[in-house]
């Protein structure tokens, strides 16, 4: 009986390892890499928004950040076109995690608009640090699920940048144009570099 129990525990561990491996492979497939899509979109937009605000002196150009919702649409299309052959429980956990993160982005915008109408002021500058926190939490959770340390710890810089921005805003400061570059740099470390590491691993698996 004890031998059978040990064998069952061993089988369970092997099954968990297989699920993690399948989830990694599903996550690591080339152009569908969510980290590269969101990461590069954020990096490019950060430079564009910074340049527009710096040159014109008009903070209105910060509204270009709403284009970050486009990658979500792109990812949805890619997921419909190319579904993984095997969907594990961990795949579903990842999907639900990022669904919650995406919902937080949208709900924050709606909440800020509604509260802004009540108090007569709406500072969308808060979106920069809040987005860094949301994306950082999602990335770390993903890293924990698939056991990739680079994903777990890469959001640390984003967290520090977000805290810095929140402290400035809560102490009477204002959003500076260079914050856009800080945001882009945070996404470079948090998503672009880990995204390429995932693709490199995917290529190794293919060989």
Automatic annotation (TrEMBL):
<protein>
    <recommendedName>
        <fullName>Transmembrane protein</fullName>
    </recommendedName>
</protein>
<feature type="transmembrane region" description="Helical">
    <location>
        <begin position="34"/>
        <end position="54"/>
    </location>
</feature>
<feature type="transmembrane region" description="Helical">
    <location>
        <begin position="151"/>
        <end position="169"/>
    </location>
</feature>
<feature type="transmembrane region" description="Helical">
    <location>
        <begin position="60"/>
        <end position="78"/>
    </location>
</feature>
<feature type="transmembrane region" description="Helical">
    <location>
        <begin position="126"/>
        <end position="146"/>
    </location>
</feature>
<feature type="transmembrane region" description="Helical">
    <location>
        <begin position="181"/>
        <end position="198"/>
    </location>
</feature>
<keyword id="KW-0472">Membrane</keyword>
<keyword id="KW-0812">Transmembrane</keyword>
<feature type="transmembrane region" description="Helical">
    <location>
        <begin position="98"/>
        <end position="120"/>
    </location>
</feature>
<keyword id="KW-1133">Transmembrane helix</keyword>
């Amino acid at each position: 009986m004890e031998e059978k129990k040990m064998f069952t525990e061993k089988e369970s561990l092997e099954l968990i390892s297989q699920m993690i491996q399948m989830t990694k492979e599903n996550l690591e497939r080339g152009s569908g890499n969510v980290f590269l899509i969101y990461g590069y979109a954020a990096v490019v937009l950060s430079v564009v928004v910074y340049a527009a605000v710096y040159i014109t002196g008009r903070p209105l150009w910060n509204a270009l950040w709403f284009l970050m919702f486009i990658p979500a649409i792109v990812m949805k299309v890619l997921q419909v076109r190319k579904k993984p052959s095997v969907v594990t429980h961990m795949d579903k956990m990842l999907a639900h995690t990022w669904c919650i993160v995406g919902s937080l982005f949208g709900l924050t915008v709606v909440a800020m608009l509604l509260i802004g109408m009540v108090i007569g002021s709406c500072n969308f500058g808060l979106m920069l640090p809040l987005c860094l926190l949301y994306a950082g939490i999602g990335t770390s959770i993903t890293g924990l699920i698939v056991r990739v340390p680079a994903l777990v710890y890469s959001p640390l810089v984003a967290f520090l940048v977000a805290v810095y921005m929140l402290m400035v805003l809560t102490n009477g400061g204002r959003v500076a144009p260079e914050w856009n570059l800080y945001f882009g740099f945070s996404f470079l470390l948090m998503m672009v570099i880990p995204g390429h590491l995932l693709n490199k691993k995917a290529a190794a698996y293919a060989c």
